[in-house]
Amino acid sequence: MERRRPIWLREEEPARRPRLSRERIVAAAVELLDAEGVEGFSMRALAARLRAGTMSLYEYVTGKEDVLDLALDAAIGEIELDGDDAGGDPREGWREDLVLQLSRGRRVMLRHPWMPALAATRPLLGPNALARSERVYSVLARAGLSGADLTAAVGALSFYVNGYVAAEHTWWSRLRTRDADAELRDEVRRHLEDRPERYPTLAGRPVVTDGDFDAQFVLGLSFVLDGVAARLPGPGPA
């Protein structure tokens, strides 16, 4: 089976018909993915949303995978980028930069639940994805990381954010409301408190009662960043 080349690595002829455009197709694809997820996405459903014939889409893209590449990069483009100020001491402020950037990424992925899983299935070579990768890499490179340490640090941060958001989506797809979340957590707490001999560490501690996903995200991210800081050259962590 011939390997599919990502759309970003192919030279393509411009579309001939003005009735549709890649921009319209991609915007509709993002809406369809938000509504139905990757599992419910098809070229037929996309064409119906655009009120166009399915075959007319193939004048702008070669197939479904191209549309998914484009839709994912468009959603990544919603992650706001600040100007990259390289002035001053590169060891100062790198953690704050990354917390801000990765928190923005989480918020966008919460709006688009299909992003984490789809991002794991393809190389992220679109212009929006590369611009945000460049931002994270440059912050860590100027802080002092290089080589395998730099690659591993970016990977650890990406896996943490994507995994955290994927778990959030799964959790809320089952519980739906904050009240249901609090009720389940309370049931789990009572279950553990009734079995202290089996679970002495878990019983009586608020390990399942904290439903503040925002605070947990930032706290967990701080542990990853502590590990990154420990690898920086110089007198000590930033």
TrEMBL record:
Keywords annotated in UniProt: DNA-binding, Transcription, Transcription regulation
Keyword Transmembrane attributed: no
PROSITE patterns: HTH_TETR_2
One term of GO molecular function: DNA-binding transcription factor activity
DNA bind region: 42-61
Protein's UniProt keywords contain Hydrolase: no
The HTH tetR-type domain, residue ranges: 19-79
GO terms under biological process: negative regulation of DNA-templated transcription
Protein name (record): Transcriptional regulator, TetR family
Record organism: Nonomuraea pusilla
